[in-house]
Fold this protein.
Amino acid sequence: MPLKKAVDVKPAHGKLGILLPGMGAVATTFIAGVQAVRRGIGKPIGSMTQMGTIRLGKRTDDRSPAINDYVPLAQLKDIVFGGWDLFSDNAYEAAVRAGVLDTRLLDQLKDELEQIKPMKAVFEQKWVKKLTGPNVKTGTSKMDLAEQVMEDIRQFKAKNGCDRLVAVWCGSTEVYRKPSDVHSSLAKFEAGLLASDDDIAPSQIYAYACLKLGVPYANGAPNLSLDTAALTELARKNQVPVTGKDFKTGQTLMKTILAPGFKARLLGLEGWYSTNILGNRDGEVLDDPESFKSKEVSKLGVLDHILQPHLYPDLYGNIDHVVRINYYKPRGDNKEGWDNIDIVGWLGYPMQIKVNFLCRDSILAAPIVLDLALFIDFAHRAGMSGIQEWLSFYWKSPMTPEGLYPEHDLFIQLMKLKNTLRYTMGDELITHLGAEYYD
C-alpha cells in the first residue's frame, strides 16, 4: 500500500538560476550541454533527472515513470546560468579554451554562450598555487568579500527574474587543510571573516554567502568548504539543503562499481594501484602537492568504507591502496585512469584485474552538475535542510550527519536516492524482497 504522503513539495514555478563558482571546463561543458539539449542538438546522456526512470510498486505492476515526470523538477527551459571566475572570458570563450566540446557545436550556441559573463571571483593565490587571473575581487576583509558575493547574488536574481537559486562549486581544488578553531561554530567563523582569518578559504566565502541568503549549495571539489561545523550550523539555521563533496567521475566511479562486486563475492584484495594522467586546468592545479593532498584524501577513503576491513580482516585488512595524479598537458580534458587490482580467491590464490579508463572528465561531470542543481532545488522546495545524504550517489567523499560513516557503494547510494524520491511522493519504498514473500 502507498505510504501516507508526508512531504508537501512546492511546485517548480518560474526561473531557476544556477550559480557556478568557477566557470572553466566543467561549468562551460554543463552550460553548453543544457543549451544544446534545449535546442534539440544533443541528448542529456548521464543525467538521472533527464533520462532516468524509477520503479513504483511490485515488479508485476509494470510502473516505471521517468523521474522527471514523477517528481516536480525544474525544467531545462526555465534555467538561467551565472557564476564567477578569475578569468574574464565569457562562456563561449572559456568553452573554446577548455577544448572539451567540438567548436562546430559551440558555434551553434555562440550567441547564447557569449551572453554569460563571469562575475569577479574571490581568489587567494595561496589556496590554488598554480593559477592566477585578473578578474578578482578586492575588499577590506573576507567579510567584505562575502558581502560582495551576496550583492552579486541579489543582482543576478533580480536582473534575470529568477524565482529560485542554487549554487554548484565547479572551481579548482584548493590546498589541503583540516578544520581549525575558526570553523568550530558560526559565531567564530563570522568573527574570522571580519578578521580575515588565514584559515578561511575562498570556497568557504562562497558557501557562506550562498547559505546566508538561503541558496542551496553543492561542493564539487574536495575542498574543506561546507563540511565544517560552522557552515553546517548555518545551513540548519537558515533551513538550506547542502551536499558534497568532489564529483564522482572517472577512476573513483569505477572503484565504487567494482569494489562492491568484490565484497559481494567475498573476493580478497591485496592492493589497488591507481594512476591518473590529466592535462586540463584541474590537472595543472593538482600538480601542486598541497592541492593533490585534498584530492588524495577524497579518493583514498572510498575502499575502506565499501570493504569494511574491520568486519572482513582476512579479506581487506591489509590493502596497499595507492593513488597518483600526473599532469600531462597533451591529454587535455581526456583523462586516462590506469588501475592495477590484485585480488585473492579460493585458498589464497592471486589474480589481477587491469583497468584502463580513457574518460572525458568534464563530459562525465556535466550531467552530475545538472542533477545536483535540480535535486537540491527539489530538496529545498520539499522542506529538506542540512546535509542531503541521499545525494551521496554523486560524490567521491559524501558528507554525512555527525556520527554516521559515508556510504560509498554506488548501488546502495542509488537505492537510497530513489527511495528518498519515493518517500517524498508518498509511495512504498522498494526493498527488493521477492513477491513470493509478501504478496
About this structure: The chain has 17 helices and eleven strands. The first strand starts at residue 15 and ends at 21. The chain has two domains: 15-247+363-424, 251-358. The mean pLDDT is 92.
